[in-house]
């Protein structure tokens, strides 16, 4: 992929001060000192501080892992591999756990915000998917992270890109927040429709003419399913049977149906027939008790287990009864009459004595159509929201792609090219190394441009230099290509003037930086 003028292809290693694995230690809820941030504490783009424990380690070992604003945390393993988080504000001193890698940007080269946004881009995720190893537990180690390739624009352009992306992504986030409200609105539409249709107000005097309140066992036969037993795992009368795992809020899930032995007498008792209304009678969650479904002969000669209760209605439309019981379950009315601690049960008797409104038979077909239409509207609302959500995801990916191709904000010819910036950082690093000689050995200066001790004879203001391809002409004289070091020696300019002139000539197309290895004259 070609890059705009002034951009270079770089790596996270080249743009970082440090890439570091996290701390391995035990943690505890009740402690003091450093908080211990783990992969599981990073959810929905933020750290859930209320879940973060304390690190049990103390002293200098721990302080080396202390987080600071601008650090980027990277999940290196598991189902969240590749997910990243930019540390913005810290509740209190914190360190990071060993399944995380910290990327600390060199802010003279790359803005942490720019790097964090790149770590959301399609280009980044393509490299993660291609480089992750392992199937059950994918892994992406620090070496691979360091070698990740990224497009690097001039620092000032990075600021413009970050500002533009922040504004656009904030608008997308607001749109997502609105769309995320749709399932709740759709559910309220369904429940509101059911409440209105069935007149769930608890006062018989408010029911329309011909309506009445009755116990469930007055409008149908109630039967608890057959209990499982090891002796019935095989036998001469094996039959398919459904259980609570096969019941969902929207209907049957028959992808996993078991079999057990039902004697002929048991088969007659526990056989399902078309029109039976079936509910799961127990669950570990109060919100999951009482899911109703209608049996329509989905499986021939099927029976049901004792995790389900069956109603065989008479004088009450099966589908309309299912809607009525759906409201009872969704509004929490079953919960008030359930039993159990760890598993909450309705039970056969609890269902039988449940009071529900009963409409006249000659009105049930028209009432069912009204409820079906209401639910269809709610379904369409959710489907449209889901499609819009998918479009937002695609739009975000397209915006990020444009941003990191240099197509989101205009380039400024006065920006210092990133290639020149990288070279100057190399100089600074090398000069730091010069001042730190190895033990017992004379320090050897790296072979990079350094400020000359003698007076320079030229300056950028000289007529032969100012606004001229001065350095490009020198490159041509030595064959058309040169290293930065060799060109600096020929230029007879101060270090500052040299880099300013180089930046000007690169920006104006007189010199090209070949993969940051050689300078070539245009």
UniProtKB/TrEMBL annotation:
Taxonomic path: Bacteria, Pseudomonadati, Pseudomonadota, Alphaproteobacteria, Hyphomicrobiales
Coiled-coil region list: 371-398
Protein name in the entry: Restriction endonuclease subunit S
Keywords linked to the UniProt accession: Coiled coil, DNA-binding, Endonuclease, Hydrolase, Nuclease, Restriction system
PANTHER family per record: TYPE I RESTRICTION ENZYME ECOKI SPECIFICITY SUBUNIT, TYPE-1 RESTRICTION ENZYME ECOKI SPECIFICITY PROTEIN
Cited SUPFAM superfamilies: DNA methylase specificity domain
EC number: 3.1.21.-
Family statement: Belongs to the type-I restriction system S methylase family.
Matches recorded under Pfam families: Methylase_S
Gene3D superfamilies associated with the record: DNA methylase specificity domains
GO molecular function per UniProt: endonuclease activity; hydrolase activity
InterPro entries, alphabetized: Restrct_endonuc_typeI_TRD, Restrct_endonuc_typeI_TRD_sf, Type-I_RE_S_subunit
Sequence ranges assigned to domain Type I restriction modification DNA specificity in this UniProt record: 30-172, 208-382
């Amino acid at each position: 992929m070609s890059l705009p003028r002034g951009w270079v292809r770089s790596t996270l290693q080249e743009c970082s001060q440090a890439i570091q694995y996290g701390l391995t230690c035990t943690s505890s809820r009740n402690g003091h000192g450093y908080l211990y941030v783990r992969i599981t504490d990073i959810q929905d783009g933020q750290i859930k501080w209320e879940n973060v424990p304390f690190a049990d380690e103390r002293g200098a070992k721990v302080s080396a892992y202390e987080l600071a604003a601008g650090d980027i945390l990277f999940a290196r393993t598991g189902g969240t591999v590749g997910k990243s988080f930019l540390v913005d504000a810290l509740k209190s001193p914190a360190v990071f756990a060993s399944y995380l890698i910290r990327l600390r940007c060199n802010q003279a080269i790359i803005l942490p915000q720019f790097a964090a946004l790149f770590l959301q881009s399609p280009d980044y995720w393509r490299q993660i998917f291609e480089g992750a190893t392992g199937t059950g537990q994918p892994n992406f180690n620090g070496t691979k992270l360091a070698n990740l390739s990224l497009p690097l624009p001039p620092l000032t352009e990075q600021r413009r890109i970050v500002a533009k992306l922040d504004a656009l992504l904030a608008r997308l986030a607001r749109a997502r927040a609105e769309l995320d409200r749709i399932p709740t609105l759709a559910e309220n539409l369904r429940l509101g429709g059911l409440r209105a249709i069935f007149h769930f107000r608890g006062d018989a005097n408010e029911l329309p003419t011909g309506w009445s309140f009755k116990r469930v066992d007055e409008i149908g036969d109630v039967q608890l399913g057959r209990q499982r037993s090891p002796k019935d795992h095989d036998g001469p009368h094996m039959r398919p049977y459904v259980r609570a795992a096969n019941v969902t809020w929207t209907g049957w899930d028959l992808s996993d149906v078991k079999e057990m032995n039902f004697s002929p007498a048991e088969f007659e008792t526990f056989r399902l027939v078309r029109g039976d209304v079936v509910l799961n009678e127990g669950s570990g969650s109060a919100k999951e008790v009482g899911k109703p479904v209608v049996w329509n002969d989905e499986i021939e000669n099927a029976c049901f287990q004792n995790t389900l209760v069956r109603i065989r209605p008479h004088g009450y439309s099966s589908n309309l009864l299912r809607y009525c019981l759906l409201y009872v379950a969704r509004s929490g009315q079953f919960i008030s009459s359930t039993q159990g601690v760890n598993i909450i049960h309705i039970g056969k008797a609890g269902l039988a004595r449940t009071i529900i409104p009963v409409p006249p038979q000659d009105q049930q077909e028209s009432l069912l159509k009204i409820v079906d239409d209401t639910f269809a509207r709610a379904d369409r609302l959710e489907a449209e929201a889901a499609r819009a959500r998918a479009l937002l995801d695609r739009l975000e990916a397209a915006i990020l792609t444009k941003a990191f191709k240099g197509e989101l904000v205009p380039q400024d010819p006065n920006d210092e090219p990133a290639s020149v910036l990288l070279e100057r950082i190399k100089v600074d690093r090398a000069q730091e190394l010069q001042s730190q000689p190895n033990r017992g050995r004379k320090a050897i200066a790296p072979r990079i441009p350094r400020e000359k001790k003698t007076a320079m004879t030229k300056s950028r203001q000289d007529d032969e230099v100012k606004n001229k391809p001065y350095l490009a002409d020198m490159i041509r004289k030595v064959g058309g290509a040169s290293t930065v070091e060799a060109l600096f020696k020929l230029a007879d300019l101060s270090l500052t003037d040299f880099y300013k002139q180089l930046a000007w000539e690169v920006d104006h197309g007189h010199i090209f930086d070949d993969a940051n290895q050689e300078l070539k004259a245009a």
